[in-house]
Amino acid sequence: MRLFRGVVHASVLLVQRYLPDPFIFAVLLTFVVFLAGWWVTPAGPLEMVQYWGEGFWGLLEFSMQMVLILVTGYVLARADWIRRVLQGIAGSARTPGQAIVLTTLVSALASWLNWGFGLVVGALIAKEVARKVPKVDYRVLVAGAYTGFIVWHGGISGSVPLKIATDDSFGVIVPTSETIFAPFSLIPALILIFTLPFFMWMLQPRQEERVTVDQGLLEEESAISAVTRTGITPAERLEQSSWISWVTGGMGFLYIGMHLWKQGGQLDLNIVIFLFLILGLILHQTPRRYLSALSAAVRETGGIVIQFPFYAGMMGMISMSGLGQVVSQWFIGISTETTFPLFTFLSAGFLNIFIPSGGGQWAVQGPIVLPAGEALGVSPAKTAMAVAWGDAWTNLIQPFWALPLLAIARLSARDIMGYCLLALFYSGIVIGLGLLFL
User: Taking the complete model, does pTM exceed 0.90, yes or no?
Assistant: First the structure.
């Protein structure tokens, strides 16, 4: 046990000393991709700069989706009814260990349903639990909330399995019954959902070494301020009229129902954002209360907006220079039929550090790994899920994806990434064994 605690301490110290701010991290990764593309591919430095500039705005739509999933999810979670539900769940934790287990479990279950929902719910349940159990180490608690995010790409909002189930761009259609719900994906997901909470529990420092949170910080914006004016003008009466929210919500739910009926019940990112928005309008009851919550939520998005163009630039350099193909082909070259899913998973995990979009990474890797897998006798379903799990896996050490959660929890990436690094090794073993033997 002393050795294990020493490893945990070393991991935390390593990250605290050497992990830069997420924006600096993105800039440094840009330099790494630039140099790698220049040295490994035929592209020269001027071509790499051109690829970077051409790709720089390639994730504008995805950037706005990320901002909206954070804003609408945050506003929804601040509605009184949702807050009461989260407080009720948080109230079941009595000890610091129970607090960490509960937070990680709730985050993992929510992330399996939808990645954006999981990020927001994970952060908010962590804050509610910290109020109930003030002696819990807040760093480990929030790290647990983030590690639950790892199961998202094996869940029902996974972009790769949903893409390959509906789009035959690569010459194959694979239903989700053969990807998300196949044993090689579902069993590792279930193992992680129900064992990661206890793994995070093991990472707690001794009581005298725990870092607790200032309860005043948690209570700073614990409630939406109610509008006290009675509507002196017609405009103010409209802002405080519940019928506007109910009519808008009714139209929204009608559209959502029609969309799900046409799509066979499948969710995509846009419909989840729309659902969060409509639910938020209804649960806040009046437009004025919704706008008050929105003002608080918008302040949490500044840290992530400017980073998307840099990751889009990296994606442009990786795809247009052929660097992604070089990396994938190297892993393919050392693979056999048995080891191909594992090495595809590892290659996807490596590329995920530089390409933040699951769909964008699939566009780079999919055309390479699918034919290679078929040539080795590996099913397209298993190949696709190897990429999907790799994309989710290294999110645990990619501070970019932690930014929405950290903004809500009011921590820095350095506070939690040392614990996430250890969760990376544990989850990699679980996923890798599943791809090898299931």
Answer: no
